[in-house]
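hey all, quick one before standup. I had two proteins in the batch that finished overnight and I want to keep them in one place so we stop losing track of which output belongs to which input. First protein below, input sequence then structure tokens straight from the run.
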Amino acid sequence: MYDKKLVRSIVKEVLGKLSGGLKVSDKIPVGLSNRHLHLTIQDIKTLFSKGARLTKLRDLSQPGQFAANEVIILVGPKGRMDKVRILGPVRKETQVEISRTDSYTLGIKPPVRISGNVKGSSGVKIIGPKGEIDLKEGVIIAQRHIHMSPDEARSFGVKDGDIVRVQVPGKRALIFDNVMIRSGPTHRLDFHIDIDEANAAELSQGDLIEIIKS
């Protein structure tokens, strides 16, 4: 009978050395995702002006992604949400990501989807300073997920597209199921959840969680 914890520790150490000294840890930092949207270049022009471009406010945890200075208004059948942040860079499809609580405010019923899967999703009106768009589909509630580089994924024994469970410690400890692994060369270790999920577990930006291993 072998010691699973000892074997896992040895495997992590070996993988770390093989990956050029990558520091391997069981802990994963939390990245809170507030309501936001991604826009196509054409929709940016419609909402702001013909020559408009997104301007960077700050970098985000994932390499190459940033929060823009530009904000818009979302309008649904029951209400509106002001100053919703745009994230860059531009996308091939416009996508709005909100929480379930936000959906009640707007009066829409977006599905829980992984980013990029917007076919048949909810619509919403987007209002900018120079124009507006009646988005027919593109509003989702983002499925919770963990970003990882390929080396990090190997160290955790997972791969892109895997579904795992996550343990949250603390006074409101709970287990998040149906957490998707998003792994690629431009990904950096981060557990992405929305504000509703974070509040349920009293999680803050940068808190540490871990994957439950069988």
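OK second protein, same deal, sequence then tokens:
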Amino acid sequence: MDNAVTLIQAYLRLNGYFTVTEFPIVEAIKHGGHRTVTDIDVLAFRFPSAGRLITQKGKGAQKDRLIGRIDSALGILDDGADMIIGEVKEGRAQINHSARDPAVLRAALTRFGCCHGDEDRDGHGDGVDALVESLIRKGQGTTEDGHRVRIVAFGSVLPETDPGYHTISLGQVIAYAKAYLNDHWEVFRVAELKDPALGFLATMIKSEAESTVAP
């Protein structure tokens, strides 16, 4: 997996999202063949009120502790369900043309398990087509169930003008992840971190902490 994508996956997971990375989009071509059109760097879904719970052994639920806070840079204004179709760049944060292709967006929405029909449940709307159009024009939309869907670009350099979709800098991602680990180091220092990005950051934090201890 690409290093930047690995970092974004870790960041989104810290913020309570479930993720799918490097999701291939395959289309049918002439004579019964198929080809890969593109892949989506990251698809992510966050349920309302998602968080990381630290339980108390042998205690009731009232003793459990919820840690962490969602990063304000994600631009979540309420606690509703949030779906992200994300593009990750090491350079400028921007969305490739293919990521705004209606067919690609339809495939992404179907992977989320929603919006795969041509009409809404009452048979009156445009269903997936209306949501795809909203994503292309405004960078966000809402499903029939009220779930927010957004296009988000991650990169080292943010655009100077509004590109029509949400952007987050890799610098902010790293700063948030390091602060999260530092704030809850008593938890993560004993956790066996399988995520390579979090594992690397945890090693940095541990090394910095040990280097300040006098021999």
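Flagging for whoever picks this up: Residues 196-211 form the longest helix (16 residues). The chain is about 30% helix and 25% strand.
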